[in-house]
Amino acid sequence: MDDKLRELAEESYSNYASVLNDIDRIKTDITHVRQGKVELSEIQTDTERLSNRISREGTAELQALERINGEANFQDIRIIQRIVELSRAVGRITTNSRLGNTGYGTGFLIAPNLILTNNHVLGTADTARNSTIQFNYELDQFGNPNKSESFNLLPDEFFMTSHYKKDAGDPYSGLDFTIVAVEKMSNEGTPISNFPVARLDKKLGKIIDGENCAIVQHPKGDYKKIVMKDIRMLVLKGDFLIYESDTLPGSSGSMVLGLGTGEVVALHHSAVPRKNRHGQWLRKDGSVVQPGDPDNMIDWMGNEGIRISSILNMIAKIPVSKTMEKYKSSLVGIVDANTNSTPVHTENRTAPSKPYVMNRSESTNNKTLFFEVQLSQVKNMRDDWKVNAENLVPGLVLNEPLYPMSTEKAHRDFYYIHIESDKNPWEIAAELEGLPQIETCTPDLEMLTDIKPGHYGRWSGNESLESLDDGTADWSKSESDFKIRWANASLVKEFIPKGQSGEYRKWNLNATNANNLKDVEEYDRLKANADKIRLVQLDTGYTDHSKVLGGYNLLQDEDFIDGEDARDEMSVGILKQPGHGTRTASIIMGNTPNGKIDNDGNQGVAVAEKESLLKVIPYRISKSVILIGRGRNLFNAVSQAINAEADVVFMCMGSYPRPMIYSIAKTAYERGIIWVCAAGNMVESVIAPAVYPGTIAVAASNPNNDPWKYTSYGAAVDISAPGEDVYVPFKNKKHEDIMVFGSGTSYATPHVASAAALWKAQNYEALKSIKEPWRIVELFRKHLKDSACIKHVPEQKIKWYKKRFGAGILNIKKLLNQKVTQSDIDSLVNAYAGKENIKEWDLGVRETVHFLWNTARRKLTPGFESTQVGEALTERARISVAAMTGRPVNKVFESYGQFDNDQTDKLLKVYFESFN
Description:
The structure is a single chain. Helices cover 30% and strands 18% of the residues. The chain contains 27 helices and 33 strands. A hairpin with a 7-residue loop joins β8 (213-217) and β9.
C-alpha cells in the first residue's frame, strides 16, 4: 500500500474512533433488527434525518415506514433494476503518472460528459490527461467479457478537484474528489451518451443509520463488481459516511448507493484498519501487519466515503476558469433540478406479517479455495456446466472461463472456479472430478519455487550473500570469495592477479561474446529496430536501484498481485528475498551509474554506447522469488503479454508443472512469443515452465565455462549461459546500492532473453514474412543452438553433455550474425507435434507432486525446519504413491518428517518429464 492510501486510512481511522460509541450502539441495534427485536427506523435517533428519509418514499408516513423497515431478506425489484442501470455509469479508470506507473481506480458519470472519482486517483490535470475511463469492463451472465469502451479524459476542458488532505490554507481541500471531462466518443467509436448518468442531489434522507448499502466498483482494476452483502451505513461524521464491511481494497472512486432508495449517497475513498493498543495495524489473524502485506490480509473493520451532499455543496464554491464555467453551470443546474424533483412511488406495499428465514448451514471456518478445471470433451456436458454449475457445486462463488475471448477449441474446456468451503481442497477436487461434466480438477495452491535462500552450505559459498531475512549482501566477502574460488578459471585467471576488477566482474559478457555489440554485422539495423521489441519480465517487479534506472518501460508495467504498479515492495522476512527482479533485469540493461555505486562493474548484455538498446517491461507476478503464489497470477500475466503482443517473455523462477500453465505456454508459442525460462536450481529435473516444449530452457555455466554444479539439467535444456557468480546489484546492511556475485539459473536466463530480443530486432523485417508465428520461436531455437559455443579442452578430455546442458554456451555475436533463410524456415518442426495431448495424471499423483514439491523440499532445506506445515496426504494420494513405486507408502514417506529422498526424486522426475 502506498503512502497516500496509508495516510487516508489513518485519517479514516481517526474519524471512526471519534464516533466509536455511536458505531457500537448502531451495530448492537442492527443485531436486534436482525433478531426482530426492533425496527430499522428505531435505530435512527436523529428525527430530522428520519423525516427526510421518509419523505424520499413519496408516500404516506405509515407506508413509508413499512417500506423502510421492510424485511431483511426482501428487496423491491425496482431498486435492483435501478442499481443495475446505475452500474452502467461506473467505469474503470486507468492512470498513468508522469513516471509512467500504471494504476487503477473507479469513477462514474454525473453529467453527460463529466465523471466523478477521488482526488487520490486523479490528483492533477497532468495525471488525468494521460488517463482513460473504460465502461462495460464487466462479465456478462455467461461469464464472458462484454465489449468495453475506453474514453480519454479531457482535463483541459474541465477539471475540478478537492485534495484528499485537509489544508488550512486551502478552503476547498479535504473532500478527496475530482471531476473531469470525458471525450464524447470512445476509442472504439461509441458515443458517451450511450451510458447513463448517475443522478445526484443535495437533498438529505437518502439513507439512515443501519440501512443497507450497495457499492459498485472495479476492485484493483478487476471486472465490475457490486457488493451488497453485509454492508450497512453506520454513522455520519461531518462530511463523511462510515459503513461496515470486511474489506473493500482497491475501490477508490466507487459509487456507494443506499439500498433502500437506489440513490447515490457517497463516493468511497478509504477503508478503516483495525489497530492494536499500540496503534499498529492488524492482520485478520490478529498479528501485526508487515511491510508488503496485501490489502486482503489486513483486518478492515469499516469503510469511509465522502457524502454526496458535501461534494455538491463544495462544487458550488470552487472557482473555475471562464472556459470551464459552462461545465460547472451545467453541472450545478443538473444538481439543482435533481434536488427539486421528488421521486414518486405508486405501489402500496405492506410488510409481510411473518419474517422469512433462509435455510442456511454454513461453517464459520469457510475459506475461499481456487481450482483450475478442464471440462468434458462432450459438448452437451460442457453446455450443461455453463448453465448448471451453481447447482452442481456447493459453495460455488465464481465460475469463469480461463480464455473468455478465445474461439480456439482447445481453450473452451478451461475454467477457473472459486469455492467457499472448509474441506480439504484435494477432497473437493476429487468430488468435482466425479462429475460427468468435468475431466480434471486441480486446486490452485501456493507454490514454492526452485529458488532457495542461501544461509546453508549446500551451494557454493557466495549463495550465502542472500540473507534469509532481509536480502542484503556483504560486498567485501563476496569479492574475496570470488577471487579465491576462480583464481584458475579460464575466463578470469588473467585478470584476478592483476587486480583488473573491471574485467573479471564482467566475465559473463566475455563468456557470451557480448562485450561489444557494435561489432555485430548490420549493427545500425539492430539499433534502429531494438526499440520496437517488447521484452516482458515475469518476476517480483522493479526497484529504483541505481544500476537499473532508466532501463524499464514503466508505461506498460503490470501488477498481477494486487493490481497496482509493478514496483517491488522489498518485503523482508521468511520466504521473501526482495530485489530479485532488479538483479535479473540488470543483466539485460544494467547501466554504468557514474560513480553512484562503489565497486561497480559489469553492465547489461544489451548495453551499447553506454545505453541499453532494450527496455524491460516488468510484470509483477510474485511478492517473493521463493513463493510464487497461485498459478492464476502467472496465467494472467502471460495472457496479458500475449494480448500486448510481446516479442520475448522471460521468467527466472519456476515450480512444478500444472495444466493451465502448460496450456498458456502452448498458446504463447503458437502466437510466436519467445518465452525464455530458467531450467531450475538444485532439482534433478528441468522445472516448469522451462520443461514445456515451446519454451526456451536455460541452464547455468560458470567462469570456467563448465556447467554450474547445481543447475537443473535434462533433455529439455536448449542452451547454457553464465549463472554462477555473476556480478549483480544488491543492497548492503545500510541499504546502500552495491554490486555482488550471485548464482542461479535466474542469472543465466536474462542473457538468453537479451539475445532473443536482439535477434528479433536484427531480423525484424525478415521475420514479418513468416506465416505461422510458432516458426519464429523455432527459428530462434535453431539459430541459438547452431551458434552455441562448446568448451573444448582435449588434453583434459572434457566433454559437453548436450542431452543435459543444451547445445552449448550462448554466443550472442555469432547468433546475431546468423542469416534467416527460407530453407531454414521450411525445415522447422512444431515443438508440440505428436504432443497434442499431454499425459493425464491421476489426481492422487498431482496431489503427491504438490506435497513433495512444497512440503518435502522445504524439509530438506535447513533454516525451514521451524516452518509448520499442516498438509496431510489424502488416501487417494497414498494409493497413487504405492502404485507408482511398488512399495508401501510408509516406505516412501510416512509424514512431513520422514520420506525417502531417492524415491521422491524419481517420482518428481517422471512427472516433470512427462510434460516435455
